[in-house]
Design a protein that fits this description.
Layout (H helix, E strand, L loop, with lengths): L3 H17 L2 H5 L5 H5 L3 H7 L5 E3 L3 E4 L3 E2 L5 E7 L4 E8 L6 E6 L7 E6 L5 E9 L4 E10 L7
Parallel strand pairs: 1-9, 3-9
Antiparallel strand pairs: 2-4, 4-7, 5-6, 5-8, 8-9
Protein name: Thiosulfate oxidation carrier protein SoxY
Keywords: Signal
Length: 151
């Protein structure tokens, strides 16, 4: 029977082997630094390959009209359009506009929900990046009564 100390030692050895084999490079392969550093909605969409943005009724954004606590604002994005590569949730007045990015394929129903931190009232966007580079969006204004960024 193994002791707790031996189990921890073996776990550390396995973690070291994974790190030396290059596992972290695969974990960061999907990270798009330009998109997460983008300060505007347009810049974040461009970082994912969107040529131009157009409003569409086929993309929907869900969220509360008034968020009582900006630290945990429930947001959702969905579309039934075929040929969607990515679905983004963006908050216009956040320090970093990109809140979430979801990879979509024909085998996945493009209907996602998450929670975001919002420091102030802002427009929230759901952007569907299509395979041909078009970006279709829907927006909704969410008013925040108690700021989530220390307010």
């Amino acid at each position: 029977m193994q002791t707790r100390r031996e189990t921890l030692k073996q776990s550390a050895v396995v973690a070291g082997l994974l790190a030396s084999a290059g596992f972290p490079q695969f974990a960061q392969a999907a990270f798009n630094k330009a998109a997460f550093d983008a300060k505007s909605v347009q810049d974040a969409a461009k970082a994912f390959g969107a040529a131009s943005m157009a409003e569409s009724k086929d993309v929907t954004i869900t969220g509360p009209d008034i968020a009582e606590n900006g630290a945990v604002v429930p947001l959702g994005a969905s579309t039934s359009l075929p040929g969607v590569k990515q679905l983004l949730i963006l908050v216009e007045k956040n320090p970093a506009a990109l809140v979430a990015m979801f990879h979509v394929s024909d085998a996945v129903e493009a209907n996602f929900a998450t929670r975001a931190k919002m420091g102030q009232s802002s427009d929230v966007y759901a952007v569907a990046i299509m395979a041909d580079g078009k970006a279709l969006f829907a927006k909704k204004e969410v008013k925040v009564t108690l700021g989530g960024c220390g307010g």
